[in-house]
Amino acid sequence: MSRPTLHPVRLADEITRYLGQLTDRLAQLPPPQAARVIAHVLEPNAGILGSVAHLLATATSFAKTQAAREVLPTEVWLALGRAANELHDLTLDLDEHRDPLQRAGIQPGTAPATPPAAAPLTARRHR
To answer: What is the C-alpha separation between 49 and 33, in angstroms, rounded?
Structure first.
């Protein structure tokens, strides 16, 4: 039996709910599993971040058409375009960090013998 087509707004609500569930579960996962999930989310073509970037690019195209018809203000189209471009750039920037996350996801989940050194930004924190 095929699933009935959802109303687009309900579909967006359902996706938002699933993202909330994923966020809750990610916070509880052991580090190797969390790293694998994050790497999958960052996948530019098949991951969540790439899909949201594509969705925003599609919204930009819609807004451009509607702005040309004077249904939407031009500022809406321009703002969506800027957001789509910035998200696309972020997707590309984060893509280069997927490999270390994937490697962290396949390493055994054993704790290191010595605690990790603080990151330079953390070590320089002033109160």
So the answer is: 18
